[in-house]
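Predict the 3D structure for this chain.
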Amino acid sequence: MTVRDISTNSASLQWRPVLTGLNGLYEIRFGPVPTGGTGSGGGGPGTSPSVGGGQYQRFTQSADSSTARLTGLKPDTTYVATLTPESNEQAFNTLSVTFTTKPEVLSPAVISISELGSSSVRINWGPLQPDQVISYYIEYSTLPSGKLSAVTVSGTQNSTVLRNLQPDSTYLITVSARHSSGTERAMSVKVCTEEVTPALSDLQLTTVGSDSVQVDWRGSGSGLKGYWLTWEDQQNSVSSQRSTMYLPPESLSTRLSRLPPLARVCVSPIYHSARGDGLCCTAQFHSDALSYGYQS
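Done. Predicted structure below.
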């Protein structure tokens, strides 16, 4: 006899069907191993171990059975189970086996983050235990000493979205489960919201002379670290080299010289964690200075 599919509160017995074709039944008994006892060896025939103290359970299975499911077990507990084939036509030995149920894992045991943005985040937890958990209480605040916010969800949920968060901030999020047994379990995680990276709002090029251009732009947004400029020959972009320049955040214009007759100029805002969407313009030099709006 073997034991399979052991969980925190159940297990399955499996045996060779020795009563096939005979009149009879299988008697199954199981219960916790008595304190100080070890039960009898698993899998082979032998004397039925003690499951005394009134804690054992008994049921029968038909002669054509070869499996049985034991339910209502306690987590992290050693059990002994006996199988006695009974028939008026032939005598059989009692088989016994001992096994230990898995320890109980109380929710939340794991927390994960998804759908992370600058002002919201989805927090997920598990395992889902709707039969054991009444509700979940989620607390969150910015570190080191931000205002504490909280939300309560039912025990049937294993995720929720926290909204109206501050961009580019570190939050401490704690998920607490209120179990029907009266037990409370909590788990925390740190989350960093994404930075807001506004795009460049405007870009203008004005040619000056035969090979220079005045570059003017508008940018905004907290956390701006500067601007990244690139320019290259639009007519021969395969072989031409791209030139670059960094400018501080207070700069809103610059002048580029010695440009090719058809030059593509791009400006992108730079933030702490990423580069925002920029704009590009193409400057074409003629005898008279011209002004050009942005082209993406």
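Residues 38-48, 287-296 have pLDDT under 50 and may be disordered.
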